[in-house]
Structures
1.
Amino acid sequence: MTDSDDRLLPLDGGDIHVRQDGPRDAPALLLIHGSASSARSWDSLVPLLTGSHRVIRIDLLGHGRSAKPAGPSYALQDQARRVGAALDLLGVEHVVAVGHSSGGAAVTALAEERPDLVTALVLINTGPSLDAFIAPESAAISPAQWPPTDEQLRQFASTGFNPGYQVPRELLDEVRFMTYHSLTATMQATADYLMRRTLPDRLKVLGKPLLVIFGADDRRWRSSSAADYHAVPGAKVELLPGLGHSPILEDPPRTAAHLLAFTGHN
């Protein structure tokens, strides 16, 4: 079975949207989006991966087509437990977990919660600690301005891409489809997770193979901080010249080449 499959899985706190592409008997590759994004951020990359992988994309609670409740916890450990439960329902026993931006923190939390499930990790433009974060120049969107205008959305998203990159309208709309609470609570959850312990410190005790891909011109996280991941034994760190915070959209073929080379050995 190789066709695409979209479904909503009923989990604690609300329904979780899952999309699968590629042969179901191929090695599983999990893709987790970043803050204020969704499974759609991987659209350009997925066709390059399905020849050799069962590609599973999940909208974390609060994002995309998943529920956006006001009550349940958006802490990364809870998000990770939901992802693990979703993979259990899909019958997935082992997965290489890939995260873009804050999605890299989410898959790290998944590996902590479910070391039996995650065989290796790939972090794409994921800052190792809050020290690496580049504070935005534009003002934050306030509750009174919600939902945001197109111009506010473009300002909000501008540092997520290289200058001149035309952000697809559907990705801007994914921010607008969030609630103000789900936007702020999920972003705060990532900050809380990084504040408690840096990602290299978390990863080096897990003993999982690690690939770090980083656009060298990232304007959200200092690309020089990617070197911090060398603290993880055996970690492979790839800096991609000419790319910004979102290599998965800015240059899918180059991103896929590194990803496939890595998964061929894990």
2.
Amino acid sequence: MTDTAQTLPEPEAVGKLYDQLTLSAMKDGSFNTNVHIGYWDTPDSEATIEEAMDRLTDVFIERMKVDETSHVLDLGCGVGGPGLRVVTHTGARVTGISISEEQIRTANRLAAEAGVADRAVFEHGDAMKLSFADASFDAVMALESLCHMPDRQQVLSEVARVLVPGGRLVLTDVFERHPRKEVRHVGIDKFCRDLMSTTADIDDYVALLHRSGLRLRGILDVTEQTTLRLADELAKLAAVEERPAAMNEGNFDFADDSFRPSDLAGVDDFGCLLAIAERP
């Protein structure tokens, strides 16, 4: 299923959604500086969810190939957790953008508290129309953020514009894996509806990057290491802990049938891809 066959997210509405989720998480105690999935290197990895979230950021760091001389753009930066980890682990400067004003306020507060506000700056902005000059960044990272944007092609073209020649883009995105079911799993529908998202067409992803002016360096199906494992881990937590599942998975306070990541437990056709590209 491609973007054109789905209800496209509206940036302003996505911003308000994540304003609400951020404030709710801080209120109910489920706040986490990582607003993204985890990465488990092996099926027998015993990493906690929090450790796996940090590990995904480390996977990005390894593939971006940045150091203390680099300037990184975090596209859809959440509340700043990954960007701050890039700063502390590489010495790079990070500029993050989010369509959520509350996420930006929180990210800048966390940067100040960590003593790295001179290296990590977070700004309210729309990835569809970046305010930065051409060739401003040595690398761009996007952790599950493109699924919230109405036009992946436009975003990737903007990424190519702001990257220096030789600069790298590393991203994760969600897609529907083959074979697709005749009737799509309700968990995927809930994800797209409640998180204002679309699933990518992996068959078109190479061409999508090339049309944007980027050269593909790699594309991997990392479903088993990411979304599938995360959903299973959260389902286990919800089953054994007395507190409500919303406390484990973030507060999605919409309705009784609202999405929680454990809704995707065992749903192996809900995939996650990791793509690495470079501006020639």
3.
Amino acid sequence: MIAFALIALGMVLTPGPNMIYLISRSICQGRAAGLISLGGVALGFLFYMLCAAFGITTLVLAVPYAYDAVRIAGAVYLLWLAWQAVQPGGRSPFEVRDLPADSPRKLFLMGFTTNLLNPKIAVMYLSLLPQFIDPSRGSVLGQALALGSVQIVISILVNGMIAVSAASIAQFLIRRPTWATVQRWLMGTVLAGLAVRMATEARR
């Protein structure tokens, strides 16, 4: 359990679509919006955990087109975010700006969708969980649910702290506009790189 928890912690600390979305929401609309979005992300984790625990996730890997559809959709979404950051007059999702406030329902659904569009989560549950399950120690389903719950709790705690502290970045960017420009192009490059990696990644 401890080893799995450490692996889960390392994964959540690695920047990805979920972290990028939560930070952008917290900065653009405040901490409450970031935390509501986190609720949607958490529901996405719960969905994948249950799918993995009951063996449904195997369908995604057994049917190449299903996996590719989710993977490509996620890549397209990241490319769209990258274009929003680097387009003429565009702004980074981390940059302070005036935005129409999204409703709590939309924030929640966007968080949920962002998590679902990341096929890495499904692969992680299918390939990582079995390594920590020992049939001789009891119910396989119970062990899968327990380990998945550990991953969800760690992700919620870490992402929650990120969402709460991300709002302070806004004031930093306001006082240092040069940093905002550098960050905008850096973020666009990172997002595009993630999109290309996701789109070209071989199915496992």
